[in-house]
Amino acid sequence: MLSASACRKRSAPAAEAEAPATAGTTPPGAHPDNRPAADGTFAPKVASDAMKPFQTDLDGNTVDGHLRALNAALTFWLAAGRPFPKDLNQLAAAKLITRVPVPPPGKRFVLDAANQQVLLVP
């Protein structure tokens, strides 16, 4: 008898969890900050959450940090199903990065489509 009582109590929350959302509630991905903008930029909250760990790298002065941030943005871009970008400015225009960092003198950041990464080359 005890086990039957315990089973009933366990099944009640599961039934509640399967209940449809009531009117007036916002489904999880429907929040305005989670929707892509009409101008082709990523949803602000989604892009911000994805790139937040790399913003310090982008803001810093190290080439390794810049590469880490640029490659993270490229990975996010490709994971979203977008075609390989023409240049790094597309990542900034889509608001994945706040800016394209300036490479050290005599070097430049390039997109390597074959390996799907950003490289620093002379």
Key phrases:
122 residues, mainly alpha, two-stranded antiparallel sheet, globular
Domain count? 1
Order of helices and strands: HHHHEE
Given the helix and strand composition, which structural class is it? mainly alpha
Rounded radius of gyration (Å) = 22 Å
Strand order of the largest sheet: 1-2
Q: Treating each run of at least 4 consecutive H or I residues as one helix, how many helices? A: 4
Main β-sheet: number of strands, strand sense, barrel status? 2 strands, antiparallel
Low-confidence stretches: 5-36
Overview of this protein structure:
By secondary structure, the protein is mostly helical. The protein is built from 4 helices and 2 strands, in the order ααααββ. β1 (108-112) and β2 (117-121) form a beta hairpin. α2 packs antiparallel against α3 (63-79). The longest helix has 17 residues, at 2-18. The protein starts with a helix and ends with a strand. The relative contact order is 0.11.
List the helices and strands and how they pair.
Elements: H1 2-18, H2 44-59, H3 63-79, H4 88-93, E1 108-112, E2 117-121
Antiparallel strand pairs: 1-2
